[in-house]
Automatic annotation (TrEMBL):
InterPro entries: DUF3107
Pfam families hit by this protein: DUF3107
Protein name stated in the entry: DUF3107 family protein
């Protein structure tokens, strides 16, 4: 978001392709809002005129347990 002291990070259960499509649809429409849902079901609503960029990372698997290095 523009003029924010740090970037907005949203962890989602959606695939990167689904998130990309949602962003593209919001930019193509006249809705003026991008609504994302995080992995806990909370909604994040971003006004499109304040959107600076969107970085979509690939899904990562989290390891559980300990490992010796």
């Amino acid at each position: 978001m523009q003029f924010a002291p740090r970037e907005l990070v949203v962890d989602s259960t959606q695939t990167p392709a689904e998130v990309e499509q949602m962003v593209a649809d919001a930019l193509a429409s006249k809705a003026q809002l991008l609504t994302l849902v995080d992995e806990k079901g909370r909604r994040v609503i971003v006004p499109l005129d304040k959107l600076a960029y969107v970085e979509i990372a690939e899904a990562s698997t989290r390891s559980v347990g300990f490992s010796a290095r």
